[in-house]
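Q&A log
Question type: sequence-to-structure
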Amino acid sequence: MSTAVELIKEKFDKEMGIKLLEHYNVHNITDNGDSIRLCCPLHGGNNTTAFVWNFDNGLWYCHTQCKEGGDVFDFIAKKEEKDIDKEFKEIVVFTANLLGLDISNLEMGKRAEQNKVEVHKWIHYMNDKLKDKTQVQYDLLRLGDLYDINKYRNFSQDTLKAFGVKYSDDFKRIVIPIFDINNRLVGATMRAAVRDAKPKWIHKPDGIFTGNLVFNINNIDCSEGIVTEGAFDVMNLYQNGIYNSVATFGANTTEQQAKLLCMKFFTLNLMYDADKAGILANKKAISMLKNKLTLYVYELPLGTDPGDLTKEDVKNLTRLKYYQYIEKYKDIV
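Response status: OK
Response body:
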């Protein structure tokens, strides 16, 4: 007879995985057949492809801030803030109840040493895979035929051309090439062109780790810069006469991105979105960079982002020293 641990691992499938995530109020899940992708439910963030749960092996992984993975028990342990080694039996019971599995007549079982080995192998495999993906020269022809765009949103033809923006009919998406700091094409970020298509943004090639990259850093040739969340923010600032902005592909600065920013700039102005996620992203970036760069924060009107700004808005922005910003927004946690 199976133990409780074996039963849960045997029964745990995509349907149960989604049920578990919905218990934690996690939605906007993209179904990729044998796996699902979503914003990481552990560290937060808004990268809709950051977290992958593979149901061939039952293991999950966060590609961005966490860089961790595991099985359903590891996930529950992290969400419930429990020590998986000391409180494993409690975690098993909690997981079974959450998934609607009856384990009352089963022996509890142990977290087999082999399972721990498999989890560690999975994490190392994903780390190596991500590292390789960001080092390989990318060919945009893998996205099918790409077409020039005369106008998109408020962007002029000159702005679209400056960033190499194209349209992919195969994917029905706006394509923006991604280059590394050495001006090598390593992938593309693609925005859905069809209304209500999900996810809004995807990155190619599959598995590219954008946390190792900073958008537009290859085009910067000055010692002072602005960092924003996304490609459209950079493009809008460019169109408004600001040519030294970059983006971190979301409201988060990774350690590798921080290193790249320090390599490029002496002075850095943070300009994440003026919402809670953006404020927290500014504060995190400050904690990482305050002793390495001269650091300021542009204060945007609440509810706006750099992609909304007009030339007049840009002129009227308030720039705070990083410690002034921290003091002003100390209650946002």
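Response note: The longest strand covers residues 185-192.
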